[in-house]
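Dock 4'-deoxy-4'-aminopyridoxal-5'-phosphate; give full complex structure.
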Amino acid sequence: MDSKICKIFFFYKRLLRNMNYSRFLTAVSMARRPSPIRILTELQQRSPPSLISLAGGAPNPNTFPFHSATIQMKNGETVLFDETMMKRALQYSGSSGIPELVSWMKLLQMRLHDPPTAAYSPERGQMELCVTTGSQEGLCKVFEMLVSPGDNVLLDAPTYSGTLAAVQPLGCNIINVPSDQYGMIPDALRDILARWDPADEQKPGSSVPRVLYTIPNGGNPTGASMTAERKQKVYELAQNYDFLIIEDDPYYFLQFQKPWAPTFLSMDVDGRVIRTDSFSKILSSGLRIGFVTGPKPLVDRLVLHIQASTMHTSTFTQLMVSQLLQVWGQEGFLKHIDSVVEFYRAQRDAMLSSADKWLKDVAEWHAPAAGMFLWIKLKGIKDTQKLIMEKALEKEVLLVPGGVFQIHSSEACPYVRAAFSLSTPQQIDEAFKRLSTLIKEAL
Ligand code: PMP
C-alpha cells in the first residue's frame, strides 16, 4: 500500500484510541520527580541575557582554565569556540539538550520520517525529542522507564549485546522473536502473541507484553534490515495488543540503497514508537551524541531520568555538533552521510568478495543492506565460542562469537560477527583466509 494511503487508513482505524501512557511506566519512572534546579537551568537557558540569576549552583566559568578553541574540519571549514561560546560549552545546560540542537534534529526527523504524531492532537502524544549521551544512554533509560520486573519483553533474536546488558538486569522475561535476513518475522511474532487475548492488554496485572525492541536496519549482529511490509505488520500487531515499539536505529544512516526504508516512526499514527538515533557511526562515536524521539509524554518523562543521572549530555560536544550542523545545513549533512555510506559500501563489498574467496565451502551469510556487520554461519561447527576465544587468537584473527548476542550466551551458536568498519580490504582478506584455515582444522 502507498505510504500516504497507509497513514490515512491507520489514522481513521485508530481514531478513537488515545494512548494511556501511564500504564506503560515502571514504578521507578513514576517515582521520578522534576528537579527544581534543573527546571531553573532550562528556564535560564531560554531567558534573555538581561536576566539576573542568583538561582542555580553553577560554577563560574571565569575560573575554568580553557579560553577558546578552533576546530579545523577536514574540508577546510572551522568550528569556532570564541570566549563566549567556550564559557557556554563548559557550563551546565538543560537536560533535554541544547535548544538549537534539539530544533535542528526535530526538523531533520520531520523531513526523514514525517511522523504522523507531529501533526495530530496532544492526546496522541505529539512528537518530542531529547539529546542523550549516545543512543546507549537513551536505550538504557527507555528500558528503565518501561520495563518492570516480571514483564514480558519482546526482542529481536539475536540482538545487540548492549541491549541485553541494559534490559536483562531489570528482571523481565525476555521473549525472543525469531528473525532472518529481513529482520523480525511478523508471523513468528503473531504466533508468540497468540497466547494472549488482545482484550486483556489494559487489565491490571495483565502479562501481555507492553514493549517490543527491534533494530530495523543493519542489525547488530545480523546485518539484517527489515522490509516496510514487515514493519507495517509488526505495527498492526502493536496496535492490536497495545504495546510500544522501541526502534533502535543507529545504522539508519548507513543504508546502502536509496530510498531509505520507511521507519516505524513514519508509520506511528498512535504515538507508540520510541525511536533512538545515533551520531556515533556518522559524526563521531566519542562525542557521545544520540537522540530519543517519541510521544511527548514519554520523552518528557525520560528527561526526568536524565535529570537524575547524567543531568545532560556534554554541552561542549552538543555545541560542537550543533555548530557543525548549522554550517552544513540539512543538505550538507546528507551529503556527508552519502560519503560515509560510500566508504562502508566499499568495505562491505570488499568483505563479501573475500568471503566468497575464502569461506564459500565452510560458511554461509547474507549480504547486509546496511550497517557494518556480516553475520557468518560456520558450517559443521555447533558453537563458535571456543573456536574464536581460543583457537582464533592463536591464528591472530578476532571475531565475535555469536553466543554473546543471545539471551542465554552459553547456548550453542554456530555464528560469528565480522565488522567491516575498521580493517582495510587487505586485512579483511587475510583475516578470512585465517578463518577459513581455522574452520577446516576444526572440522
Ligand atoms: N544500538 C545498537 C544496535 C548499537 O549497535 C549501538 C552501538 N554499537 C548502540 C545502540 C549504541 O550506540 P551509541 O551509544 O554509540 O549511540
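Observed: The chain has a mean pLDDT of 92.
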